[in-house]
Amino acid sequence: MRRRQLTMCGALLLLVSVPALLLLSRHSTSTARRPHPRSPATTETRPLTSVRSADLINFTASTGGQGMYPWQHVHYGHWRRHVHVPGDVRTKQRIEAGPEIDELHRVLDLAAAELQRSTDEPAARPSDSRGARLRFVPGLGTEYEVYFPALRPATASEFHTVRLQRGLGPLEVTYAGLAGSRLVNIVLPYYGRFAALEAFVGRFRQLVLDAEAVVLTVVHFSEGVPALEGYQERLDRAGVAELVRETNEALGGDVPRVRLLEERGAFSHGAGWLAAAANWDKSHDVILFLCNIDMVFGREFLQRCRANSQPNGRVYYPMVFSTYNPEIVYGVIKKQVIPILTNYEKEHLIHENLGYWLDTEYEMSCQYLSDFRKFGVQFANQASESFAFRLYERFVKSEIQVIRMADRDLVQLYHRAHCTKEMGRESFNKCLKKKVMNEASKLEWGLWVYKNMGDTDDVEAFLKMVNNFKMPDGLKRSTNVA
Known about the structure:
- The chain is about 35% helix and about 20% strand.
- By secondary structure, it is α+β, with helices and mostly antiparallel strands.
- Helix 4 runs parallel beside helix 5.
């Protein structure tokens, strides 16, 4: 039987045989704490590694349309080692023994050695790695980025980042530095879903208690679909204001951790993000995490949000793992329903039977405020549902590097979509498609059909049965399971 081929195999099998693997570039960038002693103005004959360092500059500059080659997240634990592959049926693939694991060990060994050499972390070990990302760019080589905890951090969220690349030659370090202390402003457009907002704010409070440098901006719209009646709207508005007040009192501090902005008009993610950016102090260039109310994430995601964002340099567009309807997933196999958050906390959620990667959506992103203002203001008058994709396109066509990969710590909770014709024809059709996709996988839908409707050999009889079919009582109720 043919062995499964990981996406990374094409690169690794070509590159593993290269000798002199551990040669470091004389021109690689190190941390500001201990710069490299060699001056780039030296008149000595340049060694082979120095010549290749010049090629590495071209490597970085020549990958303009980088959205074509998404990154893959590498989870490297003591027992579990796998790559998260967006679009793959299995959602993640094990790193097999042989060339694949050997290459990963080389990457981790060299990254740890670079930290020991160029920083004040002499005890850094490959096993300390918090994970990595990689991608193969045809004709250029393989890029890696490895994360390590800071052993003596100034803040609880600091970590080391080491970037490496194998430009169809020896593996070379291109960057090693400390990051993680930047403030992340989570921007959350909101309308009419108070229970979901309360749960989101509860998870946010836990991040703050875990010493994460984060703030939350809730943009509350006055209109939305489905529309709230007058009394419901007033009750919702009062509830949101009280929730924000109570949260800030509980968290304490001189500066409120949760900010509430009132925005008139119809709910729109783009309009909410623009309003939050316009109301933030321009002199404080924070990282914006453009978010929605169904997202679940933790410190691991925030680490990657900071590591993959750089002013006028990089923006992070993670691929979200969207969860299916637990009632259908567990109903077809006659098992007790396990809540989504339970699977998330136990790290059992990333599975093809429980959800799928949103590899064609671009709403969630991390970028600096200055970059968002520079590119997002162009769509200020057309902040529609296509705002996120238009913004992504602008970044891809610019000089800014777009980091695109599946992120296992960014999960979209199942929520039954409400589709009405008030949305307009295009948005209504898009909503219906998303609603079907979010309920279950093809296999689970098929099993559910056979279980509830019988065989489908007679197509005419089957269609007649579908038209007369009534939903089982157990599935009529709302299934917004968290």
